[in-house]
Amino acid sequence: MKLISTLFLSFFSITLLWSQETVIDTTKVIDENYREDQFYLAITYNLLADKPGNVSQTGFSSGFHLGFIRDFPLNEKRNFGLGLGLGASINSYNHNIFVSKNDSGEIEYINLSDADISYTKNKFSTYLVEMPLEFRWRTSTAEEYKFWRIYTGFKVGYLLSSSTKFKGELGTVKNNNIKDFNDFQYGVTFSAGYNTWNFHLYYSLNPILSKDAQLKEQAIDMFAVKFGLIFYIL
What we know:
Layout: H1 2-27, E1 38-49, E2 62-73, E3 80-94, E4 97-101, E5 107-111, H2 112-115, E6 119-138, E7 148-168, E8 171-176, E9 184-194, E10 197-204, E11 214-215, E12 218-219, E13 223-233
Antiparallel strand pairs: 1-2, 1-13, 2-3, 3-6, 4-5, 6-7, 7-8, 7-9, 9-10, 10-13, 11-12
């Protein structure tokens, strides 16, 4: 009886170990046709380039960007591909250009520094739906999810809404959806880093405002430059 019990326990132990190995082996699935589909979240500092004379930025101008990118590998190693996505962004720009309406309801732009008007806040904000297109190089493999990456490409955004806000000695002045904002805003992008943490840069190729927006008969054709961190989540 003791021999039978010993044999039974030995058989049970071997069976259990074999079952565990089988489970481990069968659950380790390697997808050789993997994609780097990713959600992204970016936080940027927004600069205004090509500002008119005596126009300056004041305070911290920020941007928040999020979306999803579908990956399309282009080679057998799958370390080079295209990325096409859809996302949204909210951007604020603090500056010293006062946006107001005159008695006839037309929009006017005034340099607060030249007019010697004191204020605590003056900014405009844009709300965009965006479509990024990226050329993507990475060191990922079917088994490695932490890797180096360099993504560069192009992003086009469509303006859903815009607003301006002033707080100062003239009170609080707000404007919404001014027609002088360009509906389409586009530029080049560059992202590089390791794993989740990556540096991100966007440089616009067209101005935020149309040529109808003028300050002392000079077009306010400022361009957006955004840099910060972008996080990719598989």
